[in-house]
């Protein structure tokens, strides 16, 4: 039975299920932890992880890996330990108040899901999570202020007509604009390149601009102790289910009118607040046709205008010469999946659903060194040695190395941080050791027998990201 179907709730049903829905394991590096637990349980390796919270399905309960505590520098006592399921989170909240248990936080509510935290007598932090349920205690199962049989609320934003989704808890067209808690979308779909622009006032909670199957910009997000509000900014890729978090990015003003614009081109995104650049990010966003929208969680917005503007198309082109011992003798040939283009800065490579990279035509035997001048605004650069070796610079600033001989995945925390500008990455494979350096600074070193290594050199980005390669040189030692 679908979630939108109304069912009769048993009056005797308890609002907190006698079952542990999840056990929290707080981790500092989600990708490393997911790969470690997958190996532990014999599950397929995950080469990329999309969220700060990742649930592993276990036999009975879920193991919930959570990175928010480390990112927010929360004390261990302020990180939840267990999660209990609830068919009605609002009813569970009222029940705890009735029995004298003070919730630690207000309910955080999102489409189809809500949660809050509380403590046991020893101070252990616990969580209740499940369907939002009834706000008024009358047993209603769905959000909205109008009868489900009525026509949905529509609002003319001055450039697009928005339709309020049934997930909205509150929506009203006032003289100031559309006041909303929940989601509203355009009925029409729009193709990239485009610009979404809105004049909006945030009255608390977090604000979301929406585009694509997954895409969203989340402003003013924060920890549960602040009712899910703060100065965190999140970008979810419009084409792939991949999140990028910026914990100290800053917040937009609350209680004031602001003008937000989100420009999405084939290979770049740009976000502006009142005309000032707030965020920019590279990736492949071409071939998207989708509705646009706006929303608010744990608060309320008033939207005065909403416009989607079509922009002109961009041109594309491929390939990059590779120098070998000072002479142009090879090429970096990109897969079509990278959506390659030659820009004024160099060879642009992206990565969405389908993996791809650019690789040399020739294979090189140890000892050799490869030096690439690269830039990635998400700190996402991956060097490949055939299919057996990998040097990966992660968005969180860590570096990982997949050893081609032992097949071990080794991590160096804080050693993968790039400047955001062009950097020279040098990977040396000698017979008895391998090293990785950035702008002359050695970031990783490992001894081993690499004398039998021979592979083509590849370079690319991680999922949802892009890298620009200005130059590459291979030195046979």
TrEMBL record:
Gene3D superfamilies according to UniProt: 2,3-Dihydroxybiphenyl 1,2-Dioxygenase, domain 1
Superkingdom of the organism of origin: Bacteria
A Pfam family the protein falls into: Glyoxalase
PROSITE patterns: VOC
Domain VOC: 19-131
Protein name: VOC domain-containing protein
Organism: Paenibacillus flagellatus
């Amino acid at each position: 039975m679908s979630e939108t179907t109304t069912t009769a709730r048993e009056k005797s049903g308890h609002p907190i299920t006698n079952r542990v829905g999840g056990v929290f394991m707080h981790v500092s590096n989600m990708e490393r932890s997911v790969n470690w637990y997958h190996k532990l349980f014999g599950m397929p390796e995950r080469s990329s992880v999309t969220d700060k919270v990742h649930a592993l399905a276990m036999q009975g309960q879920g193991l919930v890996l959570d990175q928010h505590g480390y990112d927010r520098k929360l004390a261990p006592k302020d990180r939840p330990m267990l999660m209990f399921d609830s068919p009605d989170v609002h009813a569970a909240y009222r029940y705890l108040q009735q029995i004298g248990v003070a919730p630690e936080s207000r309910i955080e509510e999102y489409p189809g899901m809500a949660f809050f935290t509380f403590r046991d007598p020893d101070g252990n932090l616990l969580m209740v999570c499940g369907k939002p349920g009834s706000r008024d205690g009358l047993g209603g199962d769905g959000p909205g202020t109008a009868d489900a049989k009525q026509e949905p609320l529509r609002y003319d934003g001055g450039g697009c007509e928005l339709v309020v989704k049934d997930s909205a808890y509150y929506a009203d067209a006032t003289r100031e604009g559309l006041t909303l808690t929940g989601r509203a979308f355009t009925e029409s779909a729009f193709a990239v390149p485009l610009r979404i622009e809105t004049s909006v006032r945030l009255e608390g909670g977090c604000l979301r601009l929406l585009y694509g199957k997954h895409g969203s910009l989340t402003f003013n997000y924060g920890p549960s102790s602040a009712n899910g509000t703060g100065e965190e900014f999140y970008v979810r890729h419009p084409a792939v289910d991949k999140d990028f978090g910026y914990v100290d990015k800053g917040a937009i003003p609350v209680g004031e009118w602001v003008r937000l614009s989100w420009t999405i081109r084939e290979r770049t995104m740009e976000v502006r607040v009142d005309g000032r650049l707030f965020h920019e990010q590279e990736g492949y966003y071409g071939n998207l046709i989708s509705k646009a929208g706006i929303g608010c969680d744990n608060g309320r917005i008033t939207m005065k205008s909403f416009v989607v503007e079509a922009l002109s198309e961009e041109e594309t082109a491929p390939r990059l010469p590779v120098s070998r011992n000072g002479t142009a003798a090879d090429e970096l040939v990109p897969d079509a999946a990278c959506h390659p283009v030659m820009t004024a800065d160099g060879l642009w490579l992206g990565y969405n659903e389908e993996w791809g990279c650019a690789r040399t035509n020739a294979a090189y035997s140890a000892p050799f060194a490869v030096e690439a001048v690269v830039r990635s605004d998400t700190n996402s650069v991956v060097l490949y040695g055939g299919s057996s070796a990998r040097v990966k610079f992660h968005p969180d600033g860590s570096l990982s190395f997949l050893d081609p001989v032992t097949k071990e995945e080794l991590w160096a925390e804080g050693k993968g941080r790039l400047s955001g500008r062009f950097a020279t990455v040098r990977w040396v494979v000698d017979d008895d050791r391998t090293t990785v350096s950035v702008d002359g600074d050695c970031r990783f070193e490992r001894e081993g027998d690499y004398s039998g290594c021979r592979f083509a050199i590849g370079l690319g980005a991680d999922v949802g990201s892009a890298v620009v390669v200005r130059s590459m040189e291979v030195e046979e030692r």
